Amino acid sequence: MTLFLENARLIDPEALTETTGNVIIDDGKIAAIGQMSAPKGAEVIDCGGKYLAPGIVDLGVKIGEPGERHRESFRTAGLAAAAGGVTTIIARPDTTPAIDTPETLEFVTRRAAQAPVRIHHMAALTKGREGREMTELGFLMDAGALAFGDVTHVTTDTKVLSRAFTYARSLGALVVCHPQDPGLSRGASVTSGKFASLRGLPGVSPMAERMGLERDLALVEMTGVRYHADQITTARSLPSLARAKAAGLDVTAGISIHHLTLNELDVGDYRTFFKLTPPLRSEEDRLAMAQAVADGVIDIICSMHTPADEESKRLPYEEAASGAVALETFIPAAMRLYHAGAVSLPQLFRAMSLNPAKRLGLAQGRMQEGAPADLVLFDPNAPFVLDRWTLQSKSKNTPFDGQRMEGKVLATFVAGRKVFDRTAQSA
């Protein structure tokens, strides 16, 4: 069926422009963009002057299959993603067991087929994510792995990591690492400083991130591997990142939407829904990260969606699980940056859609003729109070519960098929 989306404000993250126009979708792709009339027989959808952008490509989503399906399944993650304007999920390998063999990867690929959005997979860089022996990268790539990483399990054996980087380089594979010195960060639950001392919580210095990043960048320089830092959250890391890019290393960096919109003081009186990995940083760091996104020094914004059940969060702060769900709150949280004037809408979707798609070699993330019709229609100004119990995710661990937010997803399209419609949800 041909769709005609009329009266939309179109966000082009590649040209960094906002324009008013119409979009024709045919055979799952964008057939035309401009001020044309509806083709004969097309289904017409009036966008009402709201914003239409490429769907979010979310690099780094935790899904509980296998092993923790009670926290999140492919079905519920897919529903949450559709409701949040995320049209492509890149699932993390930190499952139980880890996605470290072609057989496990093929299992999750089959399971993911039930989701209403596109789901691709990362695979573990080392077996069991234990940092001792690298996985069969070539076989995993043949089975569909888009990237490799051990998520928050930082490899301490530099020789193992250098061998894995070298082999990944020979395959042209992308390696995703978590820049953090594991010794300094072991046992920490907040960022060190006055707040940590007042609360009596174990902290980690922001320097731990810079130290981990500089080790990784030295190995990138030695091996020439394609490298992505999953989260850069401190201003002290930015000069090292900028130098690596200026030197021509194949390096990109990401940050979670939570680290762009929250700071260490939000933890308040030991609120475990704000316990993340890495921990929330200072307001000065948060502002520096927002500027780095606007400047393009940080390439990608992700959700780092990490579902956790009530039992693992309702514990003393130090013992509670880290992480928060974010698929459905991604756009409302991002609108905080937009309304604060820190980042424009085209800059946001460059980091949320275009750049992750380009880094992974995907065709999504673009507002241009011939691109896949993976789109999100949203109102950046629609106000609401978030109730976590209305979220589609199985787990409800969001730091935004009860908060006033702006920005609602109105409809989500994957390959031209409407997979979410707020009007239908409200009926």
Summed up, what is this model?
This is Dihydroorotase. This protein has 427 residues and is α/β, with parallel strands linked by helices.
Features:
Amidohydro_3; dihydroorotase activity; 30% helix; alpha/beta; 4-stranded parallel sheet; 24% strand; EC 3.5.2.3; 427 residues; TIM Barrel
Please give the structural blueprint.
Blueprint: E1 3-12, E2 17-26, E3 29-34, E4 43-46, E5 51-54, E6 56-61, H1 74-83, E7 86-91, H2 102-112, E8 118-123, H3 137-142, E9 145-148, H4 158-171, E10 174-177, H5 182-185, E11 190-191, H6 194-199, E12 203-204, H7 207-223, E13 226-229, H8 238-246, E14 251-256, H9 257-261, H10 283-295, E15 300-302, H11 310-313, H12 330-339, H13 345-360, E16 375-385, E17 404-414, E18 417-421, H14 422-426
Parallel strand pairs: 1-4, 1-5, 6-7, 7-8, 8-9, 10-13, 11-12, 13-14, 14-15
Antiparallel strand pairs: 1-2, 2-3, 5-16, 16-17, 17-18
**Overall structural domain count:** 1
Number of strands: 18
Structural class: alpha/beta
Low-confidence stretches: none
What is the overall shape? Answer: globular
Strand content: 15-25%
Q: Which CATH C-level class is it? A: Alpha Beta
CATH superfamily heading: Metal-dependent hydrolases
Helix content percent band: 25-40%
Distance between the termini: 24 Å
Keywords: Hydrolase, Pyrimidine biosynthesis, Zinc
Protein name: Dihydroorotase
Domain Dihydroorotase catalytic: 49-234
GO molecular function, one term: dihydroorotase activity
